[in-house]
Amino acid sequence: MDKVNMEHMLAIEEPFLKVPLEQLKRSARQIQKLVEREMAAVSSELSEALKNQYRLAPEELQKTVDGLIERLQVLKRKLEDANQEEAQLIQRSKRRAIELQELKGFETTAHPLFQQWCRRRLDRVLVDYMLRNGNMRTAQMLVEESQLEHFADTSLFSLVMAIEAELKESHSCRGALEWCAENRSALRKIQSSLEFELRLQEFIEMARAHNRAGAIAYAKKHMVSWSDTQLPRIERAMTLLAFPPTTLCPPYRAMFDQARWQTLSDSFRTVIFQLYNLPAQPLLHLLLQTGLSALKTPACVSEEPSEHNRNCPVCQTETLGKLARDLPLSHHVNSNLVCRITGEKMDEDNPPMRLPNGYVYSQSALSDMAAKLDGKIKCQRTGQVFKLSEATKLFIS
Ligand SMILES: [Zn+2]
């Protein structure tokens, strides 16, 4: 029985805990800003009214006070909503911490509750995979079936999908720019140029529409502030105005290229994942790679397809093998003999059989072949044909 290795189990769980905490942090910061802005506006309006209280007609004063009350009521409603959202996020963080805490109670991997825990983890890893790929409805079905409401970051991924669709399909930067404005200080901290790229795209669209005056005004308003780090690109953007959208001149053709929308969408995903501490790859890939790296042998990467074992996932070059491409070869302390024809392990029950030409196959493969070929067997590597009785049994010591 294997012991549960807490350290290994927790190594991949960081994003699971961090996402709701990051959301909480962001929400608290936004609320703080909102309160500061509203209170400053209210107090300045109030002091203005007090200054003029003897000059203003009572009705006018009344109107100002009513306006202030209404403003504060809107603020109150927003705070109540935020309070509710934060309570949900706290609950979510708590449930996730409890889920990981449970691992402590399992002494060995044979514990039935450990198996259940792993099943739940598999489900949440699958939900993460589906959410990343935009399969929102299927993800939601699994969330409901497995009661994973507190473990799925549905709202975050819905936001990612909505903004990506706006960029790729509607060719609009509106949502992405709003998101940048809400997260400006965090973006500055990681020195992200995403907002500049979006501004540049809006500028390019004006150039495409031959709106040169509009583009210049836009650049003055939104791009000049980036001149510390982006000056050469701002200059190139200005030169773009001299070229038609059909230009073949390489740097300007690249700027007019519609493929920039896909690049923007990819950059947005990279940045938002970075801010929420989400790995670029789905957890499912990381877990599969851990398993695949234990199976990868030199034969798996051989250019010769006949070296591949059909029962080995790493040898499936079009599917799981792709995930294993950059993984190192595994270190095997004990060797296993595997039949090249059937992919089965060769042992005392299915011993290796040596043909007169020196090649070795499993007994079961050779007997199956002999049954079909009238007692004959054919070497898969050389094509030579022998009688089954010519094969000799080898002993593994
Ligand atoms: Zn293989």
Automatic annotation (TrEMBL):
Stored Pfam families: CTLH (PF10607)
Cross-referenced CDD domains: RING-Ubox_Emp (cd16659)
InterPro entries the UniProt entry points to: CRA_dom, CTLH/CRA, CTLH_C, Fyv10_fam, LisH, ZF_RING_GID
Localisation: Cytoplasm
Keyword Zinc-finger: yes
GO molecular function, one term: zinc ion binding
UniProtKB keywords: Coiled coil, Cytoplasm, Metal-binding, Zinc, Zinc-finger
Record domain RING-Gid-type: where: 312-382
Chief location: cytoplasm
ZnF (RING-Gid-type) intervals: 312-382
Residue ranges annotated for the CTLH domain, each copy included: 176-214
GO BP terms: proteasome-mediated ubiquitin-dependent protein catabolic process
Coiled-coil segments on the chain, per record: 65-96
GO-annotated cellular components: cytoplasm; GID complex; nucleus
Family: Belongs to the FYV10 family.
Protein name: GID complex subunit containing RING finger motif
Name of the gene encoding the protein in the UniProt record: FYV10
